[in-house]
Amino acid sequence: MVQDVKSRLEKAAGGLNGGRVAATVPKFKWPYTSKEVKTVLEELSRHKETINLALTADGLKTMLQALSNQTERSNGLAEMRASIKEIQTRIIMDKDHQKILDFFMPHNSKPNLKMSLRLRHPLTGLWLTEGDEFKQWLRSQNGKLCLSGIPGAGKTALAGLMIEEVLKETLRSTGAGCFFFCDYREPKTQDPANILSSLASQLARQSNGAYEILAGIMQDYTRKRAFQCLQIPQNYWMY
């Protein structure tokens, strides 16, 4: 059909030269009768319907796939969220363990995670977690994934979704997962020492080896503090 339209129009424009009408051609003659125009329009309409149907089918397939993924996600969501505490407390806990772990966690980001999960719409972020870039990051070592956007764009919600996926992966393995939310409204969440110690505390809750390292650091710290308390000030004998 396209070739036929092109051929007729070129034939009808035979008197056109360089975009200008030759003096011997009084006017441009339309190469189609009203009946032929109707036929062409009907054919174009059929092509349009075919294209729309194809797009709808492809969009429906994508939507069904997204809903299927969301159904699977929702089915395991309650279990996963209930297991967050279990993931982060794999070692045997007692009062001494808890004291050390709490000392190294000046800020707990769990409420931030719960809020981001609660505020996020179930289908939000599937484009991220179902993408190859995110899956490659999830499987990589020392990988980095940066999210940028204006305030209120949804970076926190996406961060919560990413953490959720990491914790789900942790459930399937013997690895460890930790996270931290920096909040511009809370200066202590921007302190590198607080960030690193909180991450270390989370790892120590999931690994006896990590806990032993943290306990050793705590022991050295306590010994140094005790030694400083025992030191006599230089001006003591002046009184």
From TrEMBL:
Entry keywords, A to Z: Repeat
Pfam families to which the protein is assigned, alphabetical: NPHP3_N
Annotated Gene3D superfamilies: P-loop containing nucleotide triphosphate hydrolases (3.40.50.300)
Top-level taxon in the UniProt lineage: Eukaryota
Domain Nephrocystin 3-like N-terminal: 124-218
Identification of the protein by name: Nephrocystin 3-like N-terminal domain-containing protein
